[in-house]
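Summary: Need help interpreting a holo structure output

Steps to reproduce:
1. Submit the protein chain below together with the SMILES for flavin-adenine dinucleotide.
2. Request a joint structure prediction with the ligand placed.
3. Inspect the structure token block that comes back.

Expected: a single structure record containing both the chain and the bound molecule.
Actual: see attached output.

Input attached:
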Amino acid sequence: MRSCDVIVIGSGIGGLTAAALLARYGKRVIVCESHTIPGGAAHSFRRRGFEFDSGPSFYCGLTSAESLNPVKQVFDVLGESLEAVPYDPFGHYHFPEASFGVYGNAERYRQEIAKITPQGAKEFKRFEERLLPLYDAMKGIPTLALRADWQVIPVLVGRYLPSLLKMLPHLLLVQASVGNVMDATVQDPWVRRLIDLECFLLSGLKAHGTIAPEVAFMLGERSHASVEYPVGGSGAIVKALVRGLERWGGQLLLGCHVEQILVNSGKVFGVQLTNGEILKAPIVISNASIWDTYTKLLHPDDLPPSYRKVALDTPVVDSFMHLHLGIRAEGLENLTGHHVVVHDASNDITVAGNTCMISIPSVWDATLAPEGHHVVHAYTLEPYAGWERNAEYEQKKREKAQTLYRALERIIPDIRERVVLELIGTPLTHAYYLRRYRGSYGPAIEARKGMFPGCHTPIRGLYRVGDSTMPGIGVPAVAASGILCANTLL
Ligand SMILES: Cc1cc2nc3c(=O)[nH]c(=O)nc-3n(C[C@H](O)[C@H](O)[C@H](O)COP(=O)(O)OP(=O)(O)OC[C@H]3O[C@@H](n4cnc5c(N)ncnc54)[C@H](O)[C@@H]3O)c2cc1C
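--- attached output ---
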């Protein structure tokens, strides 16, 4: 029977961050990953010479010394780094009435908004000015210094008092909805929809559901630390974390599905794998979602019933339709890499299929596609309910992918004639490959209505990391959750 100090279930960015840091600080760590490729939502996969991102492709501050990105801070501790390509504009938003460039450079972005609504651009400036001081205050307190229990207080007071004092005037903003900031600063309906869209892309919720620090961080990072794409794709971030884990003696087991977290008298003592093997450790960290951890990995009796009920009642963001394409690239020399298409202005941006995200990362890193080709990932929200692998599945899948093709036609009108490789993913694909409950993007915890839970659980020795813990969804956020958990254990 193998044993170690810490078992991490899952190699998402949250799990890998916690595991690599704990290995770096001398713990014997084993990561059990169910899939044969590490990285969870952030993994890359290869088909016929095309390297696809399965999920994220938008990053800030992966390499800059100025960056607040927790991923960069973790790389520094592990002695790892990666190459990345900076770019600006970082995307184009295509509304039915107009397309425009979205720039990291704040002044340039406002100029683009002013072309559509001069008054709106002024109001957007007021919105930024209200949020950016919060980002400036955050700058002084590295995520690496934080932990998820009361012991954070002496650390902050002892080492970061000036930054804490800078934060004081903005304390009310820390848990506030950014919708309140929008209400106080922006009346222009076009800019209000723009802010709603930016929030939706970030958290899966519009402005009133998104917390202010999340948006402050996004606005600050994209203008100060630069928008960049990792050479080698999102998988390069995962590879760097795995290198860091292994360099410090940690172990990653792929194709290693955990069936059960083993608990005795309210205390964890290991995990049981699908092949029946038991791995023993006094600490287990689950990177599986809150719903997967509390239903599939624990026995119902392991948790107090009221706690379990509240946890499982956490609202869920929808899943996705994905379209991964390999396309011929001739004549597309001026193509840019990120696009968001809103099809119908009379429909809410959150309606499934109405807002489509597009990423063409081979414009930054040509090695991701065979010569003369581009690699494309388009996706949109899609409810999990109603999907079944029945006789109609293939037909439904093709029909649902049409909204993504129509979005792509806004950018590449003859896209359908260019396709050399097509992979369509449904909520069932997403749930299967990412081992995620209902293939969800994550918890839909609205600002003002609740908070993401911390890394602790009622079971001694059992902790959680990832996008159903504080601070929430997104690569920087889940890396932060890994840091908070690792620091809490040290
Ligand atoms: C389509 C899409 C686009 C996105 N775009 C961006 C973006 O541009 N920028 C950004 O910052 N964020 C983006 N995100 C969000 C970001 O990718 C996620 O929030 C983040 O990667 C989730 O990481 P995590 O640590 O929670 O773990 P996950 O990625 O959920 O990984 C959990 C891991 O645990 C494993 N696992 C689960 N159960 C078991 C078990 N029983 N045994 C063993 N292993 C198990 C799974 O296989 C998986 O590998 C995007 C997400 C999606 C889906």
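--- end attachment ---

Reviewer comment: The chain has a mean pLDDT of 94. Residues 9-15, 32-35, 40-42, 55-58, 257-258, 287-288, 292, 297, 320, 379, 434-436, 441-442, 466-467, 473-476, 478 surround flavin-adenine dinucleotide (CB under 6 Å).
Status: needs-info
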